[in-house]
Amino acid sequence: MAKRLKPVDVVTIGVGLTGSLMALELARAGLKVVGIERGAPRFTVPDFQSPAIHDELRFSIRKAMMQDNVKEAVTFRNAPDQSALPIRRWESFLPGTGLGGAFVHWNGQSFRFQVADFIYKTHIEQRYGKKILDPELTIQDWGVTYAELEPHYDRFEYLCGVSGKAGNIKGAIQPGGNPFEAPRARGYPTPPMKEPYFGALFREGAATLGYHPYPQPSANLSQPYTNAEGLTLQQCVFCGFCERYACEHFAKASPQTVILPVLFKNPNFELRTNCQVLRINLDSTGKKATGITYSDAAGAEVEQPADLVLITAFPLNNVRMLLLSGIGKPYDPKSGEGVVGRNYCYQTTGGATVFLDESINVNPFMASGANGTMIDDFGGDNFDHGPLGFIGGQYVGAIMTNGRPIEFHPTPPGTPKWGLGWKEAVARHYNHTVLLQQHGTSTASRLNYLDLDPTYRDAWGLPLLRMTFDFPENDIRMSQYVADKVVEIGHAMGAKTVIRGGTKRPYTTTVYQSTHNAGGAIMGDDPKTSVVNRYLQCWDVPNVFSIGASAFPQNGTYNYSMTIGALTYWALDAIKNKYLKAPGPLVHA
Amino acid sequence: MSRELTRTLAAAIASVGVVGAMHAHAQSPSRPPDAGRGAVIAAQGVAPRVPACAQCHAFDGASEGSGAFPRIAGQSTYYLGKQMRDFASGVRTDAVMTPIGKALSTEEVADVAAYYATVASPFLPLKSGDPTLVKRGEQLAQIGDESKHLQSCDDCHGPGGAGEPPAIPYLAGQYAHYIAFQLQMWQRGFRKSSPDAMEYIAKRLDDRDVAAVAAYFQQARTATPPAQPKE
Questions:
Q1: CATH of A3-579 given 3.30.479.20, 3.20.20.140, 3.50.50.60, 3.40.630.30
Q2: pLDDT one-digit tens code per residue, A142-190
Q3: What is the dihedral of CA A2, A6, A8, A12, to 10 degrees?
Q4: ipTM
Q5: How far is B183 from chain A (nearest CA, A)?
Q6: Quick check: A232 and B149 CB within 8 A?
Q7: Beta-carbon separation of A237 and B9 below 8 A
Q8: Which residue of A214, A321, A377, B138 has the smallest Cβ count within 10 Å?
Q9: pLDDT (tens digit per residue) in A433-469
Q10: Does the domain made of B131-220 have the CATH classification 3.10.20.280?
Q11: What does the H/E/C string look like for A394-429?
């Protein structure tokens, strides 16, 4: 029998970015909040200090900061007629675990989505007609607009201290920024990062082709910054250990640096780590959550009653928690009915390798997770798709986050795969090669979805999440179109050789692409096609909110952390100012 | 590419503040640095403008151990040269060093920096500080202090404070009085070099912390006791 604890007001399932933001605001509003974190507690000091944190084998290769996929994996297949198998070694995407979640090991790439992203279906059909959409595509509007989210983007950027150059302030295009940027109320909190040499080469090359290069917005800061919570971030030292690592230097925005020190001072908040949530409990009607049941560090089952349950886990795990708890109707790809697991999306990536003359020193090790130079000329709907026959786009940039020795050793085609010839080629090209990134939209398709695996279970005996995914043909056409443009930029940078990138089918989980898993518990205005309403409140169980990128109906061009932060503040605003005053559905279908 | 070199070059960029600022600070010397000429300047000075460096820093760069003058033996050419340029430009100010920095030519600075960078001089067998203080200093140096939002000194200054040349100086074996005095200079805004990193950190240290890191680093490298002659 599970031990039953005293009821609390709010429980968060996960204490990462969304969980800690929610907890801070709600504890401050006077509610008793318990944060349940499956991983360990960890802090900048002592856990993230050098030299231990710069262990490439431990963190990059063995993925020490990620969900333990011996205990809890995700099964994967490309299509419904295949059998899914568990991913026992993370490569394609990296779900974080531990206090702070994936917002600890992120790169700090800090974009907003664009105006059209939030009204995607309406926008695309208005501009191009329905014929541009392949029949399997299931794009939707979000139910929230950019204008509604703008103040929340702003607030989240100022919490994180994002370093960048504004491209559009209240509709006025700003020289040096991104002219395609959605209008913002004010500039970034701190100036952009210094431009590295590879960025300068890209800037020159892209500008000669008439594109619009700009400095990538970064949550690894260009200068010290104190946020409204009184927490100070320091200046990034370009150590080249951002993604897959935690910042030793208090220079990257993370729950540890910008939220948790204040949260821990609030007596209304209690953190419980190493606790695996098994399910959300519902009452006999199935319309009201009574709390959660979790397995504590000793393996004992504990029931924590709560009035309000916030699912604040990694997006994939948000969807799994809903499925395990029987909240919402699971999606059925045959009939197209049901919602939970529907519109699972990813990110369509790619990129070119640009080999330069040996007289040009790139110094790739002198890097930060988000100090690239990039263009948005092929992002989103920034270019005319009419004659092209696909929707969506990608940003393109020289975004080199590291020159770490195990992971970074580009060699041109024809190089031996091992031995002296390989070693010589690595030494020759290490400092004279630029990687160009393509990173963009993932279009929702009725063929891609998440459900519970019928065969494989986790360490607690519960079914694993099953992912069925392949890139829609639309996204392949899009990525291949942009790939041609990237090759031209590579040559404009003075390349000796450019190796073309671009995404191909089938999608494989054995090569890193992106950790921007999205959708599966999407938001919208219609309970027939969404799991949560525009305030991220579950349609079926109004005292459960599912917060994060699982709510995206499809994925936009950009790295999504800022949009998650903005959505979290948006939902918080509704919880504080509407829900708490009159608990119940915030939208009546 | 070794990890240390990676960190070092990365730190070099951060410490100068702006990528490319290295060129803005320094006029390029007209010839490669000459450690031999540097040794002559160290021993004799440049009459009549500049006294011999050795008068305060000793010919072997170990100075005299009081901490009134830092140990400079084995600091990198880049670091030593940059300090001289900072004295000349006013980024650092010091009654003795400012006029010397202004009086030396670009080539002379490079020569004398090259000389002291290559000197391997012994560490003085100084008295160790209060053990409690040293222990606190060791904690700050190796681990940091979460409650003060302070990372470890070793993150940038290298394992055991051995330095991350060329940009970041060693602290191990540096004199306690000198370290403490420099931290106070940052706290009070008199030292402007690498202000984004060190001014913030110095201001988070209280007087006892300053004394603690200073005491710790002085004893982090001391003289190896001479081997006992075998009977």
A1: 3.50.50.60
A2: 999 999 999 999 999 999 999 999 999 999 999 999 999 999 999 999 9
A3: -30
A4: 0.82
A5: 17
A6: yes
A7: no
A8: B138
A9: 999 999 999 999 999 999 999 999 999 999 999 999 9
A10: no
A11: EEEEECCCCCCCCCCCCCCCCCCCCHHHHHHHHHHH
